Amino acid sequence: MKTEKLTCMSLCGFLTVSSIQANEPAERDYKQKQLPNIVLILADDLGYGDLNCYGATRYTTPNLDRLAHSGVRFTNFYVSQAVCSASRAALLTGCYSNRVGIGGALFPNSLIGLNPQEETIAEILKKRGYSSGIFWKWHLGYQREFLPLQQGFEEYFGLPYSNDMWKYNIDGSVATPKQNKNKANYPPLPLIEGNESVKEIVTMDDQAQLTTMYTDRAVSFIEKHKKNPFFLYLPHSMPHVPIAASDKFKGKSEQGVYGDVLMEIDWSVGQVLEALEKNGLTENTLVIFVSDNGPWLNFGNHAGSAGGLREGKGTSWEGGQRVPCIMKWPGRIPEGLVCNKIAATIDVLPTLANIVEAPLPTRKIDGVNILSLMTGDQKANPREVFLYYYNSNCLEAVRKNQWKLVFAHQSQTYEGFAPGKDGVGGKTGNVQVEPALYDLRRDPGERYDVKDLNPEIVAELTKIADEARADLGDGILNIKGANVREPGRVSVQ
Asked: Fewer CB under 10 Å: which end of the chain, C or N?
């Protein structure tokens, strides 16, 4: 069981506090303090350049653009790792994913999951009376003990892992071992409600209905919990391949299926915002939209854009780990704000804990409170340093303010390889990356190594990296960190 926490964060200055009589129920306390509802929307494999407000063309994302116009748009926002499960573990726990023992993407036969001893955002908010629901992709362990209902959520409806982890090829045929050994051995792709499978996803038509299905559940959740504070987590399965749009959006964009899918995700955001407005909740709801990592570039026209950043998903270059992030909270977040300071998904949990005056986890976390950035404090800089870990525990780079020091490592690369088309992935390669220093303010594409011109910066960032290695370890140098924790495990039957 999870242990109760005794410490408490200080109350955020702008929360309205009324005097509470000692014998009043806790629920009245929550209502009087006007705790905000929280909506967290996570896209899958959405690139830095995939929204109109980040430069996308040939399809429209009006709801997300309005969200950005009404709140803050981050330009240096990062995920813990550029891959599904690791990114989700970090978002929900406020930790670098390697700290909690989750790396890469968990497959249907994985015997590990997010350790129930870790505290999730849902569990932090539950202590303040929040109801929590998740509708869509989980990907932190498919066994019962790792599913959302055992991790602080009260409602769950969605896929336990990525939508490409099924037996089928893009043409609908069943994969053979010769075509794809992994696919051929996958179990059915289950749609889960609560802890039980209620349907199998077996066709692309099934995939095309997912966005609408989950959006309807999200809207119903808002209706159901409108009288008390709630946390709605909406982690989309797309635009992760295979992609498909419903009839409402099929053929609507000028960029093919990918554009159709993005327009439908934007529609989904609009439906959630409309439900908040309809129920009088807009003014007291914090909405966060972010992606889990950069685009899967070898899928060509079924993949997104890194917006000029280097590489994409599966790398620690900026195109893999820097993602779009938009937040709206009327009256708290100024309209039309652009934040160029460093922030990350690991900062979401401690920020929410501060806002609702909830205790932080007793176990060490890595996130910092970024409320000052959200509210437009130009002097604030709560996160100067970000660590780029990949694979199980490899420290591949470190950033401080504008400077990024890259260490020698093996990396996947999309460069020099023709992308695939229409849902079939192209080839990728592997390269040996040499040490380099990049000035991201002048060179966000990471093309010009300036380490020889700035030895003092290299020394400073190397010291930060050594401290990180002692804490979290480094698989490249075979260093075991002092403060990494084990994932949850199931025994082989």
From this structure: C
Q: Nearest 5°: phi and psi at 332?
A: -115, -45
Q: Across the beta sheet with 394-400, what order do the strands follow?
A: 385-390, 394-400, 403-406, 436-439
Model pLDDT, residue 493 = 56
Provide φ and ψ at 411, rounded to 5°: -135, 145
* Same domain, yes or no: 372 and 404: no
Residue 4 placed within a domain:
no
Which residue type, as a one-letter code, is found at position 70?
S
DSSP secondary structure letters along 270-317: HHHHHHHHHTT-GGGEEEEEEESS---GGGGGGS---TT-S--TTSSS
Question: Which residues of the chain have a pLDDT value below 70?
Answer: 1-33, 492-493
Q: Tens digits of per-residue pLDDT, 43-81?
A: 999 999 999 999 999 999 999 999 999 999 999 999 999
292 and 401 share one domain: no
Q: Tell me phi and psi for residue 133, to 5 degrees.
A: -135, 145
The per-residue pLDDT for 492 is: 66
Q: Pick the catalytic residue: 8, 12, 84, 409?
A: 84
Give the pLDDT of residue 181. Answer: 87
Q: Which amino acid is at 352?
A: L
**Is 241 within a domain?**
yes
Residue 24 CB: number of other CB atoms within 10 A? Answer: 11
The verdict on whether 12 is a catalytic residue reads no
Indicate if the alpha-carbon torsion angle 201, 206, 207, 212 is positive or negative: negative
CATH of the domain at 422: 3.30.1120.10
Instruction: Give domain status of residue 6, yes or no.
Output: no
- C-alpha span between 225 and 39 (Å, rounded): 12
What integer pLDDT is reported at residue 107 of this predicted model?
Answer: 95
H helices then E strands: how many in the chain? 12, 21
Tokens, residue 37 = 């509802």
Instruction: Point out the domain boundary residue: 361, 379, 397.
Output: 379
369 exposed, middle or buried (CB, 10 Å; 0-12, 13-18, 19+)? buried
Q: Is 95 a catalytic residue?
A: no
Rounded distance, CA 373 to CA 339, Å?
7
